Amino acid sequence: MLITDLSPEPAVAPDRISQLNTRFPDSALPFYRQLGRTDLAVSCLGLGGGSGISSEDTLYAFEQGINYFFFSSDLHHFLYSRMSEALKQLCGRGSAVREQVVLATVTYNKSPEMALAALYDQFAELGIDYIDVFFWGWIGADDGPRFQDCLELSNDLRGANSVYQRAIERWFGISERLKQMGAVRYVGASFHDFDLAHQWLDSSCLDVVMVRHNPAHRTAQQRIFPHLDPQNPHRPGIVTFKSAGMQTFLGEGHKKLPSTCWQPSVPDLYRYALSQNCVDVCLTGLRERQEVDAAIANVQKGKLTPEELEYLRFYGDLHRNRIRFEDIPPDRLLYQGESTDARHDRHH
Description:
Elements: H1 14-21, E1 32-34, E2 41-43, E3 45-48, H2 55-64, E4 68-72, H3 77-80, H4 84-91, E5 102-107, H5 115-126, E6 131-139, H6 144-151, H7 154-157, H8 163-172, H9 176-181, E7 184-191, H10 194-199, E8 208-212, H11 219-223, E9 237-241, H12 266-274, E10 281-284, H13 289-299, H14 306-319, H15 340-347
Parallel strand pairs: 3-4, 3-10, 4-5, 5-6, 6-7, 7-8, 8-9, 9-10
Antiparallel strand pairs: 1-2
Helix pairs in contact: 2-4, 2-13, 5-8, 12-13
């Protein structure tokens, strides 16, 4: 599908999103939403296989409502492969629930010549008809020219009757779903360089943008999120990753933070991402079904308050040694067990 062919009206019928969200009637944060300008209805929590979640718990996550799954065939594959049987069941040829699932896959080989090889591996391993979003992964500061070469393949890669669809049909056979959807429905990129991400935000070649984001790494809040209009039906979908930190794990508190202060959990950090402008999906590295339950329950609390967002900015700066605990205004501290209303009242 060419971007120029998209209607200015939302591609996902609003009543479909509303119907999906009846599953979570008490949530102030819509659990399902449209992924940018695509016609994909996605859960706000995505599940990646990089932490080694089992196929059994991947299926459990789907049963609980998560429908966005991220799979890699060429980086940490020994971890991602633990979810492959579940993805075969959910997305493989003949699956009765395929249209309820959004399958995102990635290649970290930033080479147009390798795209077909990556697709072959993913189609062969998962037994699928099509991929919803195919990502070019780990786009860094030195990848500009090569990445442009990759994106020039977009119209050959995505949609029905594409060059890549015909190649996949030769290898794996023709199916009705493959003919209708194409081998790849949409193209995305996972950026580690925010200047490049900003440069490509308005490109018709790129449907979904994925960026790292957490309270300690907030560059996306300056370079990406403010430049997106939630009312613009042509904006790209936005997915965040690394919510719990990069070199530093943010889910363990901070040694200088008194135990009486609010120590954010990893699900709190997911909610931090989902409280930002135009973030559609927060990609998680859940490891087991108990973490699935905790993440979903936390999201149902709704977006974080301005006071909570500010506190987590201080919290992130502590972890990056940008600020000393003594320099945080005492009236900006939040405490364990304190209600949202009490936090708001103390700040006003």
